[in-house]
UniProtKB/TrEMBL annotation, chain A:
Tetramer of two alpha and two beta chains. Its cofactor is pyridoxal 5'-phosphate. It comes from Halosegnis marinus. Belongs to the TrpB family. It catalyses: (1S,2R)-1-C-(indol-3-yl)glycerol 3-phosphate + L-serine = D-glyceraldehyde 3-phosphate + L-tryptophan + H2O. Residues 60-388 form the Tryptophan synthase beta chain-like PALP domain. It comes from the Archaea. The lineage of its organism: Archaea, Methanobacteriati, Methanobacteriota, Stenosarchaea group, Halobacteria. PROSITE patterns: TRP_SYNTHASE_BETA. The gene is trpB. This is Tryptophan synthase beta chain. SUPFAM superfamilies: Tryptophan synthase beta subunit-like PLP-dependent enzymes. One of its GO terms (molecular function) is tryptophan synthase activity.
UniProtKB/TrEMBL annotation, chain B:
Tetramer of two alpha and two beta chains. The alpha subunit is responsible for the aldol cleavage of indoleglycerol phosphate to indole and glyceraldehyde 3-phosphate. Belongs to the TrpA family. It comes from Halosegnis marinus. It holds the Pfam family Trp_syntA. Its EC number is 4.2.1.20. This is Tryptophan synthase alpha chain. CDD domains: Tryptophan_synthase_alpha. GO terms for molecular function: tryptophan synthase activity. InterPro entries: Aldolase_TIM, RibuloseP-bd_barrel, Trp_synthase_alpha_AS, Trp_synthase_suA. The gene is trpA. It catalyses: (1S,2R)-1-C-(indol-3-yl)glycerol 3-phosphate + L-serine = D-glyceraldehyde 3-phosphate + L-tryptophan + H2O. The active site is at residues 45, 56. Keywords: Amino-acid biosynthesis, Aromatic amino acid biosynthesis, Lyase, Tryptophan biosynthesis. Pathway: Amino-acid biosynthesis; L-tryptophan biosynthesis; L-tryptophan from chorismate: step 5/5.
Amino acid sequence: MPESNSKRRSERKFGDYGGQYVPEALMPAIEELTDAYERYVLDNEDGFMDEFRERIRDFGGRPTPLQRADNLSERYGSDVYLKREDLLHGGAHKLNNALGQVLLAKYMGKERIIAETGAGQHGTATAMAAAHLDMPCEIYMGRRDVNRQRPNVFRMRINGAAVNPVDIGRGTLKEAISETMRDWATTVETTHYVIGSVVGPAPFPAMVRDFHRVIAEETRRQAEEQYGRLPDAVVACAGGGSNTMGIFSDFVGDEGVSLYAVEAGGSSLSVDEERGVAPNSASLSTGSEGVLHGARTKLLQDGDGQIMESHSVSSGLDYAGVGPELAYLVDEGRVNAVNVDDDAALEAFHRLSQDEGIIPALETAHALAFLEETDEDLGEFVVVNVSGRGDKDLEAAIEETEKRDLPNAPDMGVFE
Amino acid sequence: MNADIAAAFADGPAFIPYLAAGDPNYEASLEYVEALERGGADIIELGLPFSEPIAEGSTIQSAIVRSLAGGMTVGRYFEFVEEADVDVPLVCMTYYNLIYQYGDEEGPAPFVRRAKEAGIDGFVVPDLPAEEADPLREACTDHGLDLVFIVAPTTDDDRLERLVSLSSGYLYVQARLGVTGARDDVSDQTTASLDRLAGYDVPKAVGFGIKTGEHAERVVAGGADGIIVGSALVDIVAEGHESDAPVGETANRLEALCRELKEGAVAGSRATTPERT
């Protein structure tokens, strides 16, 4: 249903969070995008949403299954269901948003696509969507992430995208986002910047959520059909928060459904103020309010407001900020922000692989680790969003597993 | 409007150089800022480094990295402003998160108060568009400081009207799309922007890409009331740092380029047609 104008405008902010903190040169493009978002996405002008739904079905492979995980269910004494976004084309939920935005850019008459990527999932999805819709595409990726995620770099290039490594800073997602904003400030008249999560200036957080809302719509319907009711708890990992907001969006109004956003606790929740380093990416759990990359949100920052280097074993979660709507929902008490550390995530990575035959992304492994770590009673019907598959993370998983004494690691000798 | 900034535009075109405070270190940077004034600066834009400078090109980004690595903090910045031995007005150029974090329930007022006390006369905040600027603008009005807005080539007429009405001190006219950085030529977008602004009675200072006296002359002849130069000066600081040149030698080079730019601007104002002035 189309919403009223006043309602739409209010989504520029979520409480005090959100907004549009960007250079003036980008503001007209953001106004143009807001207008396009309202017309095409919210009002389905020219049948935009019909085309999006058709393409995400036929090209993307939706709907993805809601699968009962029998062995995990037995382990935790509840019915654990997995929303299998790893089965979406490209192997991650990211395609929902990438396809939506590239299609929108086409409707807007833009000629070129740029995007940034951390783990490479968003870059891969954007490169695929751009190839599918015949748009030239350039991806910015931190040098360190280029080295950590080689398979995804090749996938982007195979799909015809240029991959530009970013050398400044520590060479992770934060630097890649800044660099993409610089490109956009130069080419804004012809280029659309496909932001990869529910972050950035309005209307991106609301628009990206709306493209991912399809996850929640399906989960809701499948839960009713397969289980006869809504879940007691929905669990999703949160870096920027796109799979989180995607699966939470249609449950926010259902007070009986507990929502858990699982952040990367990294190696420690403490902070090295002196070096400006947070050995985690838990901005919801440990961050403070500030302004970064176009929005007011929760950030990992020092007392002055300088942004900290974050850390996670999963490069997809390695970001010092989080989506403004998620920050708001946590403040409101609607979403529970929790976190698990690198070790627990790796254990969960092996557990799902061994117990269920599903190799999860290291991001997703955080959500699964929460089931193991938590003392809370999550209820009898629990849904975990499997945000992506772990093929891209195999090199990192082998390297990180070798460094640790994990109780459930396979024989690592065969990898030497 | 801050009286000192207004005065800087009163007698001919204003030359406004930029340096990042603390680049490459506190002591050298103090000497460099003083060299800007010797070279003819009418106003100095003094960067307070932020770790994610999304509006800056690689030159100024590198300056910010050097400054932060050299120990620059918000507290040290204010000490720097107090210690700098210059008489011209100082404009603090920074990103909103640093202003926001310094604040409390009063919003950005504590930052503005401390800045005024240290000797700052105005602000340029590149990631703060008109839509988000009310709290800072109110604090600036309360304390008699200017808040300068940037007008971009993409700014449409409605936004332009609004930015002119909100801006105080001067309008920062972004000469071309993109991020900061020296260029080998002056963009056609500059002329188009100045033509659009010709009817507005507000000082117009052009920045982004001005590198030589000849650029300065052409921009002022095209209707600018001032020129803003950052990257070309920061390049000199970077070269001095990389080649381990004596601080005095780098300061002399900065002073010389400033003189060339200032003279270019003055020559441009002589070429300006009377109806333009």
